[in-house]
Amino acid sequence: MLVRDWMQAGPLTIVGDTLVSEAKRLLIENNLHALPVVDGARLRGLVTRASVLRMGHFATRTQNPDEMAFFVTRLKVKDIMVRRPATVQADDTMELCLQRGRELGVAQFPVLEGQALVGVISATEIFQLAAHCVASSPPGSHPDPTASQPAPPAPATRSPS
Q: Nearest to residue 83, comparing CAs of 48, 45, 47, 112?
């Protein structure tokens, strides 16, 4: 199974000059955890909901009106985005994608075809893949998590002499 078969094609994207306040709105309204930052079709970075919320929290904690105004009116995505985020290629296998996600602790990847952004793959698509695999496997081919497990063998004991 290839990433291209499971990815979300044509993802919502933003450009680096987008205000962070606008990125926050897009992330929340679209229930996204990250947005690819592009220049044309070329991936330039990734802005995450966590980084946007962290910056907003920082700005409001200072209680300085100038810093809050800067956050709302001048701070741009390119100032806080993750540059060179981990990516996968559209023709990579899902197995490779899962391994990379586990190794890197990443739950979402921009999907590239060469250098062009063509999609994203996230935990949502990975759960769909898992459901597909479980549904298509024959009954009894995977462990039943509700079944009681046999007791481990008792430790060996010495008989008194």
A: 45
